[in-house]
Amino acid sequence: MRAALYMRVSTEDQAKEGFSLDAQQKRLEAYCKVRGWNAAGVYREEGFSGRSASRPEYERMMSESDGWDLLLVLKMDRIHRNSVNFTLMMDDLRRRGKEFMSLQEKFDTTTAMGRFVMDVIQRIAQLESEQIGERVKIGMARKARSGDGPMGSGHPYGYVYRRGEMGVVDYEADAVRLIYSMRAEGRSYRGIAETLNETGVRPKISSRWSGQSVKNILENPLYAGYVRWDGIVRKGRHEAIVEREEYERVNGAALPDA
Question: 3-class DSSP state for residue 54?
C-alpha cells in the first residue's frame, strides 16, 4: 500500500502539544512502518486553516494522486474542518479509487459503517469548530479595538507569552529583522526561506522555513507593534520588533496612527 502522509498546522493549532508538523509526521511514518506500507508522499501544510480546501500542499497532494493508494492523516480535522469540503474530497477519492484513513479515530473507507461514522464525526467537529469560532471572534474583536491582549493562541515567532504579556525573544527577533531586511532588498519569499535554512536559523514550529512562513511574518503587523483581527488593526501594547516605517515600506500599506 502506497500512503500519502498529510499533516497540517494552522495558527490556532500550533500551540497544541502533539500537533506540530514533525510530531504528526513521526507518528504517521511509524504507523506505515508497522503496517508495511510505503510512504509515497509527505505533504506538510503550515499556516493554513482546515476550513478552506485552497491549500498548496493539499492541492499538490491531490494532483499527485497517481503516486499513492491511500490518504493517511493523524486526525480527521487535520485534513478538513468543513463537512462539505470533506464530503467533496471523499467523493473525489472514490472516483480515483483511493482510500482514506485517520489514525487517531481509527476509521477507514473500506466499510459502509466506517464511511457513516466518519461523516457523523466530521459534522460534529464542524459544529464544535463553528461554535468556538463564534465565541473567539467576539472576544478577539473586543481586544483588537482596544489593542489589549494577545491576538490568538500560541507563541508567534519572535515573541513569548509570560503571565499574559507578550515579550520579545531576542534571537528570534534578530531573525525577524533579517527577514524584513532581505525583503526590502527585493528578495523573494522562497529565496529568504532558503537563506534562513542554509544559515541554520530555525523556525519555531517546523524544522524548515517555507515561503509561506516568511510571508506570514512579513505581512503581520504584530512585528510593528500592532494587533490585527478580522480586518481591525490597532496599536498594541507589546514591544515592536521592526519599525513601523519598515513594515509599511515592505508591505506598501500604511498602518493606522492609533
Answer: coil
CA torsion through residues 128, 7, 35, 33, sign:
negative
Query: Where a domain ends, among 112, 134, 156?
Result: 112
Q: Is residue 134 part of a domain?
A: no
- Asked if residue 108 and residue 156 are part of one domain, the reply reads no
- Residue span of the structural domain in which 63 resides: 2-112
> Is position 130 within any domain?
no
- Cell numbers 488593526 correspond to 233
pLDDT digits (tens, 9 = 90+) for 188-214: 999 999 999 999 998 987 789 999 999
Asked whether residue 94 falls in the same domain as residue 28, the answer is yes
**Sign of the C-alpha dihedral computed for residues 170, 172, 176 and 178 taken in this order:** positive
* 164 Ramachandran zone, left/alpha/beta (phi>0; psi -120 to 50): left
CB atoms within 10 A of CB 54: 9
Digit-coded pLDDT (tens) for 4-29 = 999 998 765 554 555 789 999 999 99
Residue 208: name the closest of 221, 220, 219, 195 by CA: 195
Q: Which residues of 174-209 are buried (b: 16+ CB within 10 A; e: fewer)?
A: ebbbebbebbeeebebeebbbbbeeeebebbbbeeb
Asked if residue 191 belongs to a domain, the reply is yes
Instruction: Report residue 36 as a C-alpha cell.
Output: 508495511
Same domain, 151 and 224: yes
Residue bearing cell 466499510? 111
Instruction: Phi first, then psi: give them for residue 200, nearest 5 degrees.
Output: 85, 15
Q: Name the residues annotated as catalytic.
A: 10
| CATH number of domain containing 63 | 3.40.50.1390
Q: Which residues contact 90 (CB under 8 A, 6 or more apart)?
A: 100, 109, 115
